Amino acid sequence: MQGLYISEYLPPQYRLPKLAPNPFPTKYELGIDISPELDPDLASYFQSLIGIMCWMVKLGCIDIATKVSLLTLHLALSHEGHMDTSLQIMAYLGLHHNTCLFMDQIYPDINDDKFPVMDWKEFYGKVMEPISPNSQSPWENQHMHVHRQQQSCGGQTDQMFL
Q: What is the pLDDT of residues 59-115, one digit of tens each?
């Protein structure tokens, strides 16, 4: 469905890539993108794509989390390269929609004897972390109150107080 909208309403230079082995195009740097700025209509479409991808990350598609968060930095001033990158992510998701990410919860048994003990004082000298003279002790008068509110897609709100 996304591909039909793109081919019908967006300019011809914006198409979903046929091959998308990675979420980001290789050798692309977001921060130094010098392509032309998007016009207001394309910028609005780019912003909606980023919103959709943010929801996808919240719903569990964590393989694109870093890439989407990098693109959100460019919502205010988006360029054509940013739009191309967002379409690359969508094409990647279309081609890799059944991927799984496995987390191993087992702590590895590491033999510390295999790692030599090194004395770095000769290299670094006497290094100490600078501490402000008017700083408090780490545990003095520390209070933390946390309120977490999460709204699910169904409109229900889960709350937790710590």
A: 877 778 888 888 888 888 888 888 888 888 888 888 877 666 666 778 788 888 888
Candidates 48, 68, 63, 65; CA nearest to 98 is 63
Every domain of the chain and the residues it spans: 2-25+36-95
DSSP track, 62-93: GGGHHHHHHHHTTSSS-BHHHHHHHHHHHHHH
Name the token pair of 40. 């207001």
Distance CA 53, CA 11 (A): 21
- Alpha carbon distance 78, 22 (integer Å): 21
Question: What's this model's pTM, rounded to 2 decimal places?
Answer: 0.57
Beta strand extents in the chain (DSSP E only)? 147-151, 157-161
Q: How far is CA 25 from CA 5, 78, 83, in A?
A: 22, 17, 12
